[in-house]
Structure formats: structure tokens, C-alpha cells
């Protein structure tokens, strides 16, 4: 899983996920020298990342609770 994450991070390409109106405004603003299009892309990616961060947080909390309820295993070498 860590390998897939690292591959995704290092081999990712530029993402341009916008609706038609947003992409038209972004293209027009960049041709005039403004950087609002980049800010718009960053905002969309930020909004996309939030649900994944929440899911990771819930997963960590669930994992910790699951580990707390597990009976403690005793190694045969510790007796």
C-alpha cells in the first residue's frame, strides 16, 4: 500500500478538474497575466482532499479502538 502511495505521489500529473465555466474563467485570467486560475485549481484540489483526510482520521480512530479491545497476546518466550 505504501508503494502505491509513493508511486501516486511521484508519478502524478497536473490535475485540471473544473467545470466549463470555471475552466473558461481560468483560461481567460491566465492569458491576461493573472494567477487566479492556479488559485482556483488549488481550491478545487483542497476541497477534493478533505473527504479523504476525514476518512483517514476515522480509519485511525477505528483502528485504535479495535486494538484496545483485542486481548493481549502473550508470547511463548515471555513465560
Task: Describe this protein's structure.
- This protein has 79 residues and is mostly helical.
- It has a domain of 50 residues.
- It is 70% helix and 0% strand.
- It contains three helices and no strands.
- Helix 2 crosses helix 3.
- It is elongated.
- The two termini are 35 Å apart.
Strand content: under 5%
Number of DSSP-assigned strands: 0
Helix content: 55-70%
Contiguous runs where pLDDT drops below 50 for at least 5 residues: none
Mean pLDDT across the residues is 76
Class by helix and strand content? mainly alpha
How many helices in DSSP terms? 3
Q: Biggest β-sheet, characterized?
A: none
Roughly how many Å is the radius of gyration?
22 Å
Taking the alpha carbons of the first and last residues, their distance comes to: 35 Å
Q: Rough shape? A: elongated
Write the element-wise H/E pattern from the N-terminal end onward.
HHH
Topology:
Blueprint: H1 2-10, H2 20-31, H3 36-69
Protein name: Adenylosuccinate synthetase
Keywords: Membrane, Signal, Transmembrane, Transmembrane helix
Keywords for this entry:
single chain; about 80 residues; mainly alpha; 3 helices
Task: Tell me briefly what this model is.
The chain crosses the membrane at residues 43-63. Helices cover 70% and strands 0% of the residues.
